[in-house]
Amino acid sequence: MSHYLAVDLGAESGRVMLGTLADGCLALEEIHRFPNVPIRDGESMYWDVPRLRADVLEGLKKAGARELPIQSVSCDSWGLDCVLLDRAGELIEPAFHYRDPRTAEGVKRVFSKVPWNDVFAETGIQFMPINALYHLAMETPVRLARTRQIVPIGDVFNYFLCGVARAEVSMASTTQLYNPTTRSWSGNVLAAVDLTPNMFPDVVSSGTLLAKLKPGLAMETGLGAIDVIAGCTHDTASAVAAVPAVNSQPPTLNSPQWAFLSSGTWSLMGVEISEPLINEECRDLNFTNEIGFGGSVRLLKNIVGLWLVQECRRQWAEDGEALGYAALTGMAARAPAFASLINPDDGRFMAPGDMPTRIAVFCRETGQPDPDSPGAFVRCCLESLALLYRVTLKRIEKLTGGKIERLHVVGGGSRNDLLNQFTANACGIPVLAGPAEATALGNILVQAIAGGDLPDLAAGREVIRNSFEVKTFEPRQEVEWHKASRRFDELIE
After folding, report:
1. Residue 419 falls within a domain, yes or no?
2. Fewest CB atoms within 10 A around its CB: which of 271, 287, 318, 414?
3. Buried b (16+ CB within 10 A) or exposed e, 439-463
4. pTM, whole model, 2 decimals?
5. Does residue 345 carry a catalytic annotation?
6. Domain that holds residue 284
C-alpha cells in the first residue's frame, strides 16, 4: 500500500487529495478543499497566491495529522500564467490573472516585433490573448529589474514546498514561450518581449524528483522529509494521463481512435500523438501542441467551457438569485431544445462580466430569441458547447487523417450527464464519462510511476479502469442534432 498527496489548484477551487494505491486499485480521498477567489482591482485581476499558499499548507497539515507513510507530494494547476520571483526567491506581487485585460496591449506589442505566423512556427501553440507570452510583454522595467526568475504558476507551488524551481515540461509548453521541437525555451520568442531563457527555470520531464519537503515544512506539517515530485504540473496533462483508454501508446497521425475532452471551466479537446504537428493548416484552425507525460504531444483545442455557465451563475447570484449547478442543469433539461445557439468561441465570452446579457445580445444580433429563463440560458450554453465539440472533433480528424471512434470526457464536467448526452448526440459517437477527479488521479499516477510503484502509463490507466466507474452515453436524436449543427455552422463561419 502506497500513499501520495496531490495538490490540485483549479481556477475556482483547490484541493489537497490523498491517493492510496493497493492491489491494482487507486482510492482517492479529499483532505482539504478551499476556494480560489481572484482579487479584482477595477478592471484588473490577480491571483491571491499567498492565500492559496496558506491553504495548501493547511491541507498538508491535515494530511500529516493522518500519520500515514506518505511517499511524495506534487502540485498541479491551471496553465498560461507565470509569476515573478525576486532575488530572495520571494513572490513579486501582484501575480496577474490570465484574464487580466492588459494582454490586449501585450498582443499588439508582440506582433509588432514578431508576426503571428512566426510565433506559431516556433511554439506550436494556438493564439489566445491570455497566453503567458502576452502578459510578459506587459511587464514593467521596474518589476523586471527586481526579478531573478520567472516561474510557471503550478511549478512555483512545488518550489514553495521544496525550494527548487524547475519548469515541468507540460506546464512550460502551455506558455507560448517553449519550442516543442527543440524541447527548450524559445529564445526567438522571448527576445520579442525582451527576455532571455536564463530568466526561466530549467525544463524537466514529467515525474522528476525535485527535492525533499523543506525541513521547516516537514516538521510543521508532520509529513516528514517526503519527496516533492514535478508530476504533470499542468492540470490538463495530469487529467489526460488519467484517461482510462486502452491503447496508451501515442498513436500515429493516421490512427488516433480516441479523443479526450477535459471538461471544466475550460474544455480542452484533442488527441495524443507522438510528435508536434506544426503546419499551416494546424495554425489556421488554431490548434495547439502541448507536451504530455512521457514526451507525448497533446494536439488539442482550448474552448471556453463551463465558464459560460459559471459566469451566468455568478451574475444571477449578484442579482439576488443564487442557484446551484445541479438546479441549473435540471432547469436546462426542461427548457425547449435549440431555441437559441451561440458561438462559444466568440471573443465577447472570454472576459468576466455580465454573461447573460452578452448571450442575449449575441442571440439578437443573429436573429434568435433571447433566452427567457436561467434554464434557457444554460441549455443554450450546453447545446452550443456540444455543437462546438462536434466541429472541433471533425477538425481533429481532418488534421490527423484518422477516424475518432470514441470520446473520453474527464474532469468535473464529466458529472454533467446532460452535457455528456448532448455531446454524444452532436458528435455521433459514444461518450465515455469519468473519472471526474482525473487531474488529481493523473497527478498521483505520475508520482507512482516516478516512485517505481507503477511501471508505465499503460499500467496506470489500467489502474484507473479498475478503480472508477465510466459511464457511457450513446448518440441519440440524430436528425434533430444534424439540423441544429447546420444552424450552428452558420454562426461560426
Report:
1. yes
2. 318
3. bbbbbbbbbbbbbebbeebeebbeb
4. 0.93
5. no
6. 243-434+455-493
